[in-house]
Amino acid sequence: MKLYISDMHFFHENVMRLDGRDFADVHEMNKFMIEQWNAKVKGGDQVIVLGDMFWSKDPKEVNSILNRLNGKICLIEGNHDNRWLKSEGVNFDRFEWIKPYAEFNDNGNSVIVSHYPVFCYNHQYLKNDDGTPRTFMLYGHVHNTHDEVLVNQFQEMTRRTVLKGSKQDRTIPSNMINCFCKFSNYMPMSLKEWISIDKKRREQMSLPVKINELPIPDEM
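Structure (tokenized):
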């Protein structure tokens, strides 16, 4: 099974304040995220991490986490991952692949994965014969900041857009899912699970939100 998660930021002290993560310190945060990962991930599962997995530059610290995580790990490079990706001694054998961007099939759905949200992603306009979405764009990077509110507003605007055609008018699908680890209580989730989590969360986001009350992504 393919599972997805983003922006775990192992060993990142400041991210606890920025995200409002309720941990005493990074060691407590790291321990909880490992436990949540292993409670969900089985040996044959493939976990696609959508960037910013580690903050540490120390290969011993990185390996201490990698060697305790279940499953097969794939990484989409995030803006902070170059801190440790260039370090000698990291156990890169734990990764099936490391890429800046990828497209693949997941149980009949086309999946686009990138650390950064891609607003006009490949196959965005395609639907299945029954009108259901065919392609999903999974991203991270923006955590739960004002940028995520703007992504939501873009999606609502896009879905309301009507394209005039020679045969019939049609709307534009926009299926962008933020796989921020805090949204799933730090557990990697399947595409089906993320679709459900995202739907419920964005229904709440449709309520009035004051942008200036959300955190500023100065270190995201």
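The mean pLDDT is 91. DSSP finds six helices and ten strands in the chain.
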